[in-house]
Each structure stands twice: as structure tokens, then as C-alpha cells.
Amino acid sequence: MRALPMLLLVALAMPAQAAAPVEVRLAGGVYAPNDVEAQPGDAIRFVNADDVPHTVTSAWDGGAAVSKVLMPGDSVTLVFDQAGTYTLRCMPHSAAQPDGSYQGMVATVHVVAPASPHAPRAWELGALYAGLALIGAALFAWRARQARPGS
Ligand SMILES: [Cu+2]
């Protein structure tokens, strides 16, 4: 029965799998894949593998907005720094809907921050500080004894 906790410890200690660079192909009038999960800082490469031009156009407002025309064979790499959900569309092959969404050649990128396996928990920090306080108290007591004349 002792093997089970050991196996769990090994599994917890395994480093997170490094994310492979994500490539989205624009082919057959669709983004493939059209639903991508990424972590903040990940780069996603969009490659036009079709024989007609497409665009990679952000369907959001703001500083990171992008619109890039990709001729056949062209590519563009976008880095997603902020967590969030991002909709990208091809301008000639998508259409705005009354509710503000888009139909047609559309891709969604979900940027999700991973839960850090190495972030210290509150009780670990507490134990660390308690240990440091004990060491400090022991040093203080030792110094006090050394300084006492005639001891
Ligand atoms: Cu297109």
C-alpha cells in the first residue's frame, strides 16, 4: 500500500508538458482547428493552405486588434498575452449576425492561464515563516547567552 502515495507524488512532480506550437490551417474555407486552447504568451501560427486569399481578422476592439490578409501560402503568427476568449474571422468569408457574433469562417481562441503546480500554498508559507522565526529565536537566545558576562 506504500507504493500508491509514492506514485501520486511522482505524478505531481512531473513538469507540465511543454505546449507545442499551435498551427491553424486556413483550408477549404475554414480555420482548422477552429477552436484552439492556448496559454498566455503562446504563439499561434495561421497558414493559408487554400488557393484563395483569406484574412485573419480580430472580431474584437482594442489594442491587440489585428487584420492580416493572407495570400495562398502566406502565414501570420499571433501571440496571445492575455487570458480571454478571442474570435478571429475571415472578412470575405464571414458575416456579422444581428447579435454581434459572426457566422462562416470563424475561429475561437481560448487563452487560459494554467494553474501553477509550483505556487506555494498558504500553509507551506506559514511553515516556512514559523521555521525562520524559530531559527531567529534560537540565534537570539544563543547570542544573549554569549553576551552575558561571567557565563
Ligand atoms: Cu476566407
Give me a quick take on this structure.
This protein has helices spanning 3-13, 122-147; strands spanning 22-27, 30-32, 35-38, 42-48, 54-58, 67-70, 75-80, 84-96, 102-111.
Describe this structure in words.
This protein is α+β, with helices and mostly antiparallel strands. The protein folds into 2 domains: 3-15 and 118-147; 22-111, Immunoglobulin-like (Sandwich). The protein is 25% helix and 38% strand. It contains 2 helices and 9 strands, in the order αβββββββββα. It has helices at 3-13, 122-147; strands at 22-27, 30-32, 35-38, 42-48, 54-58, 67-70, 75-80, 84-96, 102-111. A 5-stranded mixed sheet has the order 3-9-8-5-6, with no helix packed on it. It has a 4-stranded mixed sheet with strand order 2-1-4-7, with no helix packed on it. The two termini are 54 Å apart. The structure holds copper (II) ion (CU). Copper (II) ion is lined by residues 54, 90, 92-93, 105.
The main pleated sheet reads as: 5 strands, mixed
In total, the number of domains comes to: 2
Uncertain spans, ≥5 residues at pLDDT below 50? Answer: 4-16
Adjacency order of strands in the biggest sheet: 3-9-8-5-6
Kindly identify the CATH topology of the largest domain.
Immunoglobulin-like
Helical content (DSSP H or I, runs of 4+): 10-25%
- Rg, Cα atoms, Å: 27 Å
Mean pLDDT: 84
User: Would you count the extended β strands for me?
Assistant: 9
Cα-to-Cα separation, first versus last residue: 54 Å
